[in-house]
Amino acid sequence: KAKEAGKNNCQFYAKGMSATAVNYLLLENDLRRAVEQEQLILHYQPQIDLKTGELMGVEALVRWQHPERGLVSPAHFIPLAEETGLIAPIGEWVLRQACYQQKRWLDSGKKVGRMAVNLSPRQFRQRNFPEKVESILRETGLPAEYLELEITESCAMEHAGETINQLKQLNQMGLYLAIDDFGTGYSSLAYLKRFPIQKLKIDSSFIHDIQSDPNDAAIAKSIIGLAHNMQLSVVAEGVEKPAQSDWLCDEGCDQGQGFLFSKPLTARQFEARFVGKHFAFDGNVVKLNALA
Ligand code: C2E
Ligand code: MG
Ligand code: MG
Ligand code: MG
């Protein structure tokens, strides 16, 4: 097929394809080797209790250290991985790596709360996905309660029937389950109430202008209320300013995640900065203090 030929012959492709398409193909080729050549890396971003400043969890976010292109964002290569099926080995690598890291932190007495890992739709829909998670937990020795899995709202709502079955199995294993980017998909509340989940993550697009846009404020308040009425915890994504954090705290939002607290960091940076510390909110300043 043309796709096969294109791999070894870019000129053949350049005639009929746009530069972006060629670029995409080159990237696909490189991505195939990314896992085996150990070019992927996880960064970690803290999730903070907005009342106490305590570190409640950490989200693992993958990056690709491309030999020529530098650090490639997951927004660029995860969709490609999803399309080509490469998400299976990449997703598995991410999960295993995050579990090993969390187990190391646990074993050394460094409490970081739960480790949250993002799942892409194709990965989540694999029939044997729960078994895969089970075997990675066994391999790494990580107890299930320290692992949280995030699926986006749009992924969850597409084939909602299947989603329920899959979530049930994962829930029975003792994992913590979160709906990511909440508010951006086509949510069905009839389905939402049937999902055995523990957490909603308010999408950052509602947080950005939360102080100036009354609609965003209304939506955020409603999601916080919805979550709490369903006995779920709620996290705001993309918290960048102390005023946003204050507002969210006043509205009863449980946790915040965003550049205000930290950008995603390497494991080493994360450890040095956060382990054994908690945040203190002092007027407009967010400080890091050593735990008493
Ligand atoms: P997400 O899961 O919603 O992750 C939040 C994204 O927002 C991250 O981008 C994070 O770096 C960024 N972010 C955090 N705080 C702030 C802030 O205060 N302001 C702004 N402007 N951005 C903030 P990142 O790391 O580029 O990841 C983008 C998306 O790629 C993620 O969105 C997630 O959907 C996907 N992704 C990342 N890692 C993985 C993975 O291992 N597997 C899968 N399937 N998807 C992943
Ligand atoms: Mg996420
Ligand atoms: Mg999100
Ligand atoms: Mg997002």
TrEMBL record:
Record keyword Transmembrane present: no
Biological processes per GO annotation: cellular response to nitric oxide
UniProt key word Calcium: no
Keywords: c-di-GMP
Coiled coil: none
Molecular function GO terms recorded: cyclic-guanylate-specific phosphodiesterase activity
EAL domain segment(s): 24-278
Protein name: cyclic-guanylate-specific phosphodiesterase
Source organism per UniProt: Marinimicrobium koreense
Shown segment, full-protein numbering: 472 to 763 of 763
